[in-house]
Amino acid sequence: MRRLLRDLRPFLSTIWIFVAPLLLSPILFYGTKEAKCIFSICLCTLYWIGEVVPIAVTSMLPLVLFPAFGIMSTNETSQQYLKDTTMLFVVTLIAAIAVEECQLHRRIALNVLSHTSGRFTWSLAAFSVATAFISFWMVDTAATALMIPIAIAALEEMGKGDEEEGSTQTSVTEIGESHIGPDHGHVGKLFDGLSRRDRGMWKCMVLVCGHASLIGGTGTITATGPNLIFRDNIQTWYPEGQTGVTYLSWMAFALPPLVGYLIASWIILQVVFLGPRSLLEIVRSPKGENSEKAEKMNRAILNAKNSLGPMT
């Protein structure tokens, strides 16, 4: 039996293509449009989970299933793929690629960080603000992917010894331009050799990028998927009415709580990973080893900022 399963393993994806519809076929016996819709959605879900075909191909299945089952016409179904909300989402992804290509995210982050004097608690706040601002204009996932390498580069420089000062600029530049992936296993090794407090600092810096990108995604109506879906639904429900939901009115509504969320995230991360006493560093200058680390981080940030050159 085991040998049979081992021999069938290369063909599991192909087998699943036919098995999944058979498992769901009892739903079709209800004969209603709702049941057929459930069948179509579940089939797409099973194909996505099993990855039997590329995800993009599975996404096109409704174009075949909905007209075939009489749920929606081909014209109605295809229109859902090219709605203005969908295109707006695609444009934000294109904008994220453009920002990465021209290194705009690094300029924003490094310019904000250059005013923190390398003090960790304020560097954490600066990363939070910079990530949230970038997340205003692009998908939160892309904002996180762009900012985490910069955060890790700054943390690595903070942990370097004075004898390695000459390599500061290269390290920040190279790591800041890359993404977290399989080639960055050295990050895990560095983390394992850190002290308890330094580990807490790494956790804070990485998590604040994720927190801030999600929080920043609430700031504009185009920043994240749920906001776009809300906008699309409100326009569908009230096609002739004035809903009052505009780009500026959304920002006026969302920005005040957004600031509160960022401050709460900044404080909570420090309390959880560095302890309540770390909040004293907000008003107290670092001393001893912490002062040296602040100087190293500040030098690394300034060198990386200068390496970018002028905007034009």
Automatic annotation (TrEMBL):
Keywords: Membrane, Transmembrane, Transmembrane helix
Signal sequence bounds: none
Short name of one Pfam family: Na_sulph_symp
GO terms for MF: citrate transmembrane transporter activity; succinate transmembrane transporter activity
InterPro entries linked to this entry: SLC13A/DASS
UniProt-annotated location(s): Membrane
Primary site of residence: membrane
Membrane topology: Multi-pass membrane protein
KW Transmembrane (keyword) present: yes
Keyword Transmembrane helix applies: yes
TM annotation in the entry: 12-32, 38-69, 119-139, 204-230, 250-274
GO CC terms of this entry: plasma membrane
Similarity section: Belongs to the SLC13A/DASS transporter (TC 2.A.47) family. NADC subfamily.
Name by which UniProt lists this protein: Citrate transporter-like domain-containing protein
Organism of this sequence: Steinernema carpocapsae (Entomopathogenic nematode)
